[in-house]
Amino acid sequence: MRQLSDLLASLPLPPVDREAPPARLDDRLLVGLGAGLPAGHVHVWGGAAGAGKTSLLLAMLHRAAAHGRRVLYATYDLPPETLALRLLAMGAGVDAEALAHGRLGAADAERAAHLREALARTPFHVLPARGLGVASLEDRLVRMPFRAEVLAVDYLQAVVREPGSDVGLALRDLATLATRLHVAVVCALRADAVPAGEASPLEGLPLERADRVGWVEPASSGGVAASVVRNRHGRRSDQPVTLDASGEVSGD
Questions:
Q1: Which residues, 6+ apart, have CB-to-CB distance to 238 below 8 Å?
Q2: Phi, psi for residue 249 in degrees, rounded to 5
Q3: In terms of CB atoms within 10 Å, which of 17, 89, 96, 246 comes out highest?
């Protein structure tokens, strides 16, 4: 398990004033997606490969951590260093490869450096989770030196479970974990897109234990569009919430 400050420390960026006031957060993302990540609930965000599920999760978790909620991101896919780099590049609106290799212009480098300092102060940790089942995730949570308030699982199908079982088993166990540890659980789910006008790509999947289910797809104007399709404890989203390339909510 590694903290964002450690994952981002080696990037070639200029020093900044550590006492600079934090930037004002735009919380339209969480409000538009059903108002936050309540403890004890499980949230599932489905989408096709490359649709932007990881970008959505990073944006949501950054906002949660920036408000002081302790976040643990269990990654079954990308290395922790790649996730941290993507979050910083997305938030600063810069190219990730240029950021990693010190090829940013002066203004971009300064903006990324300020954001790195802000991210380093947030309680955001990343756990390499390949090969772990829900019981192992829970063991990591209870053994940590702090109590996590938000657990992200990227992605649901990769959670180790009994042979021959479907994602419904992993989701059931995560729902039990969420209730027992009073933690919000948010998962990415890989699902195939379907032609417009046909049934939802989430139809028929065993998602009954999810409190909120959403769909993520590329926005026509660029970025990511996310919609709540089922919300047991609140409203659905009539219109998708759109994130631009920097992870900020675009439009009204």
A1: none
A2: -75, 125
A3: 89
Query: Which residue from 154, 148, 213 is spatially nearest to 182, judged by alpha carbons?
Result: 148
SS3 state of residue 130: coil
- The structure tokens 């269990």 sit at 74
Task: Return the residue matching tokens 């420390």.
Answer: 9
Instruction: List the structure tokens of 112.
Output: 């990324």
Closest by CA to 150, choosing from 67, 61, 214, is: 61
> Angle of helix 80-92 relative to helix 106-120, nearest 10 degrees?
120
Structure tokens at 236: 């659905």
Question: Which CA distances in Å does 141 have to 136, 167, 176, 210?
Answer: 9, 21, 14, 20
Residues 107-152: pLDDT tens digits? 999 999 999 999 999 999 999 999 999 999 999 999 998 999 999 9
Residue 126's contacts (CB-CB under 8 Å, 6 or more residues apart) are 1, 2, 3, 4, 7, 72, 73, 75, 80, 83, 84
Q: 242 phi and psi, to 5 degrees?
A: -110, 130
Beta carbons within 10 angstroms of residue 75's beta carbon: 22
Measured distance CA(251)–CA(39) in Å, rounded: 29
Q: What is the pTM of this model?
A: 0.90
Tokens of 10: 């080696």
Instruction: Give per-residue pLDDT as tens, 174-211.
Output: 999 999 999 999 999 998 765 555 556 787 788 999 99
Among 37-46, 101-110, 150-159, 239-248, the minimum mean pLDDT is found in: 239-248
> How many CA atoms within 13 Å lie on the side-chain side of 57?
32
